[in-house]
Amino acid sequence: MTLYTLIKDARSLAQGDVAFSAPETEVARQLQICNACRYCEGFCAVFPAMTRRLEFGKADIHYLANLCHNCGACLHACQYAPPHEFAVNVPQAMAKVRLQTYADFAWPPALGKLYQRNGLTLSLATAGALGFFLMLTLYLKDSLFRVPPQINFYTIFPHNLMVMLFAPVFLFAVLALALGVRRFWVAVRPELPVLSRDEGVEGLAHASTGSARTERMDMPKLQRAAALEATHDALRLKYLDGGHGEGCNNANDGWTLWRRRFHHATFYGFLLCFAATSVATLYHYAEGWVAPYDLPSVPKLLGITGGVSLLIGCAGLFWLNLSRDPQNGDAAQKPMDLGFIALLFVTSLTGLALWLARGTAAMPATLALHLGVVMALFLTLPYGKFAHGIFRGAALLKWAIEKRLPSKLQLGDD
Questions:
Q1: Exposed/middle/buried for 207, CB within 10 Å: 0-12, 13-18, 19+?
Q2: What 3-state DSSP class applies to 82?
């Protein structure tokens, strides 16, 4: 244990705070160096947010770690990066803390820690077990390899049975994600001035334009503007451009936009597939139309487009993950990353295979496998890489609010 760690832990205990973990202590150490240098202020939101602080508490470290998009630009620009004795590697240090936050704020915590250690194995084992269980059910009914009497999913698995299986899983995923992000937000949320609506906030600089002009602004208006900006930045993946528009560093010090593109393909592919399922639900309950649907129906168009986008995005992210320079991330996070990517890929693959197997003897087994994979995906959503998107969105929202408020330091940091 270093002298810096001992001093940090002693200070935390004296202030009544929980002692820092080793990754948190390392982030605090590196940020103190970065705060003295400030060469990387233009790369992303982490460094302007950092300059608003002289010390870094646990909540600050969790916030900044999830605000970091791990683009790698600061590592390759840093004069104090390894092999310098300061050994500043912000992307790697932040990645280790992010991994810790996924487990610390997960609900229930035990599942977060289990997935943290065995993400890839747990994801594939859960999908395989659920798929096998459903196929075994069909085998015992002597319908596993039979052509369905009607081209209808519900002749294989009754509708009510599918609702009974998936509704609890979906509701559990939503509840666990909501409780996890609520715990995170309570820990890191910005301190807002206690002002009446009429009183407003005096002297708020226009951070988005850099103008020194100030105006009176009420808090609800400020929060709405911040929410819109955070949503815009999250949907565009603004901070995966490396701060210069050329993209992230991956295998070397060369820039590439493929990480941003593959993230977009994966994210919007997932949204399209979810939209396809939502529209199909409306078709079933509002119109009485039974799945599967033919082209060019809306669910089919959304599902095929989203499925292909997911396949491309997941395959690309898998390739980038395996080829990335180890200095740009945390090796301990790979099982979690690959587990989530693999589940998304197999979900899309089995969904498209189910479309091709329609009306054949392979349809029952393919449906059972697809349903098992989808259930496994939603069971693990709150504990893997999907959660990082929710936490990062919360961190972006805090930054969008924070930068609109006057700095507490008043040291020219803005």
A1: middle
A2: coil
Name the nearest CA neighbour of 376 among 333, 332, 344, 337.
344
Task: Say yes or no to pLDDT of 193 above 80.
Answer: no
Beta pairing class for 255-256 and 211-217: unpaired
Neighbours of 232 (CB within 10 A): 12
301 close to 331: Cβ distance less than 8 angstroms: no
SS3 for 379?
helix
Amino acid code (one letter) for 294: D
- How far is it, in rounded angstroms, from Cα 158 to Cα 91? 49
Collapsing DSSP states into helix, strand and coil, what is residue 365? helix
Nearest alpha carbon to residue 290 among 145, 169, 155, 163:
155
DSSP state of 290: P
pLDDT of residue 206 exceeding 50 = no
CA distance 127 to 348: 13
Q: Are 70 and 329 in contact (CB under 8 A)?
A: yes
CA 283, CA 83: separation in Å to the nearest integer? 60
Q: pLDDT tens digits, residue range 77-107?
A: 999 999 999 999 999 999 999 999 988 999 9
- Contact of 291 with 280, CB cutoff 8 Å: yes
Rounded CA gap, 332 and 99, in Å? 8
**Cα R_g (the chain), whole angstroms:** 24
Q: At residue 199, does pLDDT exceed 70?
A: no
pLDDT at 196: 47
Q: Is residue 65's pLDDT more than 90?
A: yes
Q: What is the pLDDT of residue 194?
A: 57
Phi, psi (degrees; rounded to nearest 5) at 249: -90, 135
- Residue 16, Cβ neighbours under 10 Å: how many? 6
User: Looking at residue 118, what DSSP letter applies?
Assistant: H
